[in-house]
Amino acid sequence: MFRRRGDGLIASAMLAPAIAILSIFVVYPLGRAVWLGHLRCDATGRKCRTSGWMQYFDVLRSSDFQHALKVTFVYALLTVPAGLVIGVGLAVLADKQIRGIGFFRTIFSSTVATSVAVASLIWFVLLQPQVGLLPDMLSMFGVMKNPGLLNDAGTALPAIAITSIWANLGFTFIIVTAALQSIPAELFESAMMDGAGGWKRFTNVTIPMLSPTLLFVSVVLVTRAFQAYAEVDLLTKGGPNPERSTETVTYLIYGQTSLVKNDIGLKSTTAVLLFVILLVLSLVQFRSLERRVHYGN
Amino acid sequence: MATNTAVAKQQKSWRIYGRYALLMFVTLIVVFPIYATVLSAFKSGPDSLDHPRSLLPTGLTLDTMRAAWNLGHMGRLLWNSLFVSVAVTIGVIITSVLAAYAFTFINFRGRRFVFGFCLATLLVPVEATVVINQRLIDSFGWKNSYQGLIVPLLATAFGIFLIRQVFMTVPKELIEAASLDGVGHFGLLREVAMPLARPTLGALGLFTFLGTWNQYLWPQAVVDDQEHRTIQIGLDALRSADINRFNLITAGTVIGALPIFVVLVAFQRQLVRGLTAGAIKG
């Protein structure tokens, strides 16, 4: 470690750009939002009056926030377990050194290349009733309804969920594949010597060895569900209305039809509540990473 | 004995065929949305998407792509995304390297506190700060500007942390030797720290580039004019332009997805290594 005169000055100069950006655009906005969260304001935020710190609990209890929270939970339930099962299934299927496996792995990883916006627009077109490709297929199972999946209050959220499962598949596949490859082969061999069949090896060796990775992936996917914004904006704008069937928490704050749009105070309250939820999720994520490391050793 | 192994062999080969069949089937499902989108982008006319024959590669044309390119001002959108993403990537690399160097190699008062401060920002998601940042950018007069799109993203706790992890692997003896030889901070940074960090800088650069390119919420919050729109939010505008021509949307989507596809094919290995480094090795 260097210890010289003037080191403090050099350190300050080197840290200044990063600290300035992080202070102005991360810490200050968060603090400001927490402060504004107890106010009711007009859209410009110039005229504010206090509404008391209980405003956080008022918003939390409000039917609008509860509704958005419920939509987000359902969305997470629709996307995360299915995404995990499909992702693990694909990874296990492709986890065999056979000819041409690289091709399949590339295909299964490929959706990682699509942004949320690109994935949403791909599915936006496929899900249009006039386009008919997918709706025709679905109508064979009697799922399809006239206005199209995205315009029906009952099917809009599952339709967005399909988009999200597809778009996240590449990510899940890559992570799980890497985790599978890090399982020591001896474990499978000794299980085989004990006479364990394919399914038994899967449940007794693969799943326990994967569990820390599965925890990590699920937390990432749940976090993405709570951050869901672009897909909602591009596919349904929070609708169909009046049910607001796809209004997630993030969309409640930032959507064009947002109920809190014209009140920077209420908007801040809601954003801070979202922050608290995401904070808990990221703390769980860090814990899952730590566990992962211990298993690795 | 001989027949037994023959039977086992045959069983084994059937298993492999079964696996291939399953792999092919799943591939079709995963690829179908991409295939339908790309194909319709190269077709024109009414049968491009609403008929079973639209899935056959016949009657291909570049007209739809051309129309989408012009109508959607795709060149401008791609340029904006590229400019913003490259600027942010370079900025993040510079701020991360400088800060990580100070945290690792310089012993100054309050170091632990300042590092903790940086690390804590890792927990603040963009969804929590856009409310205020939108107004902040407004008050700077940066609405509808590249500054608004770029400046707030120029430093990340993730970048600082990542590079610091690498710098910490420099052996103490090496630093002391360099110090005795009279090598200054910038000498140490250039000769010792940077060469060591190069692979990690690549990963950080790739992830920063992809993250910036794929943003949606922030560009939508600070830009609403044609001139500064990025590709992600520009695609939405293209859709609004002519809602009845689905071809235009698919063509625009293909154009918007292509650059990232190329980047990922080129950096596939770094991407996988980067993604799994966080999840597997910690």
Describe this structure in words.
The complex is a heterodimer of chains A (about 300) and B (about 280). With about 300 residues, chain A is mainly alpha-helical. Chain A has one domain (about 60-295): MetI-like fold (Orthogonal Bundle). In chain A, about 70% of the residues lie in helices and about 0% in strands. Chain A has twelve helices and two strands. A two-stranded antiparallel sheet of chain A has the order 1-2. In chain A, helix 7 crosses helix 9 (about 200-225). The longest helix of chain A has about 35 residues, at about 265-295. Residues about 295 of chain A have low confidence and may be disordered. By secondary structure, chain B is mostly helical. Chain B has a domain at about 75-230: MetI-like fold (Orthogonal Bundle). Chain B is about 75% helix and about 0% strand. Chain B has 13 helices and no strands. In chain B, helix 1 (about 1-40) crosses helix 12, helix 2 (about 65-70) packs across helix 12 and helix 3 runs antiparallel to helix 9 (about 185-215). Chain B is flat, with a radius of gyration of 25 Å. The two termini of chain B are about 50 Å apart. In chain B, about 40% of the residues are buried.
Brief sketch in words of this structure:
The complex is a heterodimer of chains A (297) and B (282). In chain A, 69% of the residues lie in helices and 2% in strands.
CATH domain fold name of chain A: MetI-like fold
Radius of gyration of chain A, in Å, reads 24 Å
Number of domains of chain A: 1
CATH architecture designation of chain A: Orthogonal Bundle
CATH class of chain A: Mainly Alpha
- Strand elements of chain A, count: 2
Q: Please give the order of strands in the largest beta sheet of chain A.
A: 1-2
What is the top-level CATH class of the domain at 77-231 in chain B?
Mainly Alpha
List keywords for this structure.
heterodimer; A: 297 residues; mainly alpha; MetI-like fold; two-stranded antiparallel ribbon; 12 helices; 2% strand; disordered C terminus; B: 282 residues; flat
